[in-house]
Amino acid sequence: EKHGDVIIYPEIIIDLIGEFQISKVNLVLDAKDDIFYHCKVYASSNNEHWEEIGEKRIDSKRSGAEDIVSITNQAARFVKVVGVGDSKHQNDLFQTEITMKEFRIYGERILPTIEQLGNLISAVQKVNFNDNSKTQMNRLRELTIIAKEAFDNAAPPDEVNAVYWNLYDHLVSSGSSQY
Questions:
Q1: 112-137: buried (b, 16+ CB within 10 Å) or exposed (e) per residue?
Q2: In whole angstroms, what separates CA 36 from the centre of its chain?
Q3: 162: closest CA among 176, 146, 145, 140?
Q4: Model pLDDT for residues 123-172, shown as the tens digit of each residue
Q5: DSSP alpha helices (H): ranges in the chain?
Q6: How far apart are CA 54 and CA 82, in angstroms?
Q7: Is 0.90 surpassed by the pTM of this model?
């Protein structure tokens, strides 16, 4: 896409809801023709400040082709994949496109800070839970209250860790995917 003389590359942002120590990103193509993609991968904790963490050229001669972007342990909540080129549009970068089937992001849980707990609480408050059962909703409210108390009281790290991951696990297991 072109805005004046500036190229706006296609991008996909994945919100992991919680922060993780990311070790690799696996990009799986949804190839429909014999083109290659040139992608850059970025990470962010706040969806505002991005750090480039990898770059790959991916040959899509077969559907389901995949490539791994290895990363040296980057803490992040958001991962962004930007298509910066493809062989179909080499002479017109303004038309760059990217088609992905799947993203697999690997990493480990982090020991969250009090600020990260606050961010998780804010994320939970933005989720649409209309399709959840009353039991799931009550448990989520209970875990959110516990998390808010830990946040408001500047709880010690072990308590922050426990309430953060309890809230995160319930959020993910409840099937709430509208972030």
A1: bebebbbbbbebbeebebeebeeebe
A2: 23
A3: 146
A4: 888 877 777 788 888 888 899 999 999 999 999 999 999 999 999 999 88
A5: 114-125, 134-152, 157-173
A6: 11
A7: no
